[in-house]
Amino acid sequence: MLLTLSTTMPQASDLGFLLHKHPDRAQSFDVAVGTAHVLWPEVSDERSTVALLLEVDPVALVRGRGRHGDGVSLQQYVNDRPYVASSMLAVALGKVFRTAMAGRCDARPDLVGTEIPLEVSIPALPSRGGADLVRPLFEPLGWQVEVTPLPLDETVSAWGDSPYVALRLTGTMTLAAALTQLYVLVPVLDDGKHYWVTGDEVDKLLRAGGGWLEGHPERELVTRRYLKHQPALVVDAVTRLAELDDVRPVDDSASETATGGAGSEVRIAPLAVQRRAAVLQALREEGAKSVVDLGCGEGFLLRELVPDPTFTSVVGVDVSHRALQAAERRLNLDRMPDSQRARLRLLQSSVTYRDDRLVGHDAVVLMEVIEHVDPDRLPALERSVFGHARPTSVVVTTPNVEHNVRFETLAAGTLRHPDHRFEWTRAEFRGWADAVADRNGYTVDYRPVGDDDPEVGPPTQMAIFRRVTA
Q: Do 239 and 285 sit in the same domain of this protein?
C-alpha cells in the first residue's frame, strides 16, 4: 500500500519538521499488519515528497483472524486486498504520523497552524461507490480531486472497471487537517475495517474529525461507514456530532449558496458558524471581559474566546464530564500557550443549580442550551443564572421553530435535534425573555441570526439581556 504527500511551500524541506521525520533517513515501523516504511523520493526547498509504504504480512493477518472476529475480509493468505489502500493504511498513517496529526511541532511551532500547498496521491484505493463517491467526500473539505477508475483488466475492456480508483488530491490546508481527513476517509471509501469496531471508535472518529466532520454534508455516510454500520455506535456518533454543530443532523450545518452580483455564487457560512460569530460580536459590544459559556459542550465557542486577549477570563461549564474531556482535546490544553491557559477554566456544573463559582462575571452565554432543558426546569435555570450569578449581560440563542419549514430534510412537526425538549416561535421566545428580564431587573434586546426570512424569520433567535444598574 502506498501514499505520497508533497508540498511546494517555501522551504519545502521543512515538511520533515512537521512530520517529525528526517528527510535524509529512511525509517521503518512495526504495525499490526506488517511494516510501515517512510521514504523521501524528493527533498528540496522548492518541493518535497514523503512516501508511506505499508508492507503487509498476509500470513500474520490470517493467523490473527481469531483476535479480530470477522474484521479481516481476506481470503486465505493472498489476494489483492493487502495491496490496496484500506483501513490498514489508515492505521499505519495514525501510528507513523501521530504527532503531526495532533498538530504538534516543537521544532517549528509556527508551521503547525499554517496552511500549506499539499498534493496527496494514492495509486490504488478501494471505493465502494466508485469514482462518483470520492468527490462528495473530499471536495467539501477544500480539495481539488482527480480520480481515475482502474480497469479490472487492462487487456479486456469488456470487463469494465474494478472496485479501485487512483486518487490525486491538491489543496491548501494545515498538514494536521489533511492527515486526519485521510485517516477517516480512506477506510470510509473502502466501507470496511480490518479490525473489530468497538465504542472506542466513536471517540477516535470525533477526535480525528474535529473541526471538519461536524459540518461535512456527508457526515452521516462517513459516520455509518467508519463505524461499520453498527447502529448503536452510529446513533451515538451522529448525536454527538449534531451537538458539536448545535443542530440536528440536517442540511443547515452545510454552507448555503446565494446568488451574488452578475450571477455569481456566494458561499454562506454554516449556521453554527454564523451563530458563534453573532455571540462573539454581542460580547464585544457589551464590553465583556470575563465570560461564562454555560453549556459549553465540546468547546467550539471556547475555541474562539480563548485566543482573544479581549476576554481576560473564560469559563466553560457543562454537566457532561465526557463533553468537558472532549473540550480539553479540542482546545489542546496540553499544548495551549501559558498566556491563554491562565485565562481558561473548565467546570462541571448544571445550568439549573446555583453555583457560586459563576458569580461575578461580566457575561454568561447560553448558546443553544435552553431548548435542552425540560420546560418545568426553566424557572430553576432562571434563578441560577439571572437571580444568583447575576452577570452584567446574558446572551441567549435558541432555534426559531417557525423557520423549520425551510429545512427540506426535516419532516414536518419534528424538532431539529432529538434532545430538544421544545422549540419556540419568535413570540414564545420573546414572551419568556421579557418575563425573565422583568422579574430579575434586566432589559432585553432581540437579534436575528442567519437569513431573516420575511415570512418565517431567522433560523436562530438571539436575546441580549442587560442588568439594570441602580
A: no
- Residue 169 contacts residue 120 (beta carbons within 8 Å): yes
Pair (320, 408) in one structural domain: yes
Q: CA-based angle 142:143:149, to the nearest 5?
A: 145
The residues, any chain, with a CB within 8 Å of residue 325's CB and separated by 6 or more, are none
Q: What is the pLDDT along the chain (470 residues), one digit of tens a residue?
A: 899 999 999 999 999 999 999 999 999 998 877 899 999 999 999 999 999 999 887 766 666 544 444 444 444 444 555 556 687 888 888 889 988 888 888 888 888 888 999 999 999 888 888 788 899 999 989 999 999 998 887 788 778 788 888 999 999 999 999 999 999 999 898 887 666 777 778 888 888 887 788 778 888 888 888 888 887 777 777 666 665 554 444 434 444 444 344 444 444 567 888 899 999 999 999 999 999 999 998 898 999 999 999 999 999 999 888 788 888 888 888 888 888 999 999 999 989 999 999 999 999 999 999 999 999 999 999 999 999 999 999 999 999 999 999 887 777 888 888 788 999 999 999 999 999 999 999 999 999 999 899 999 999 999 999 999 86
Please tell me the total count of domains within the chain: 3
Structural domain harbouring 203: 197-244
Please name the residue that has the C-alpha cell 457560586: 356
In this structure, is residue 251 part of a structural domain?
no
| 313 and 426 together in one domain | yes
pTM exceeds 0.85 for this model = no
Query: Which residues, including other chains, have CB under 8 Å from residue 347's CB and lie 6 or more apart?
Result: 315, 316, 317, 355, 357
Task: Judge whether 263 lies within some domain.
Answer: no
Last residue of a domain, one of 179, 195, 211: 195
Alpha helix (H) residue ranges in 7-86: 15-19, 58-63, 65-68
Within a domain: residue 449? yes
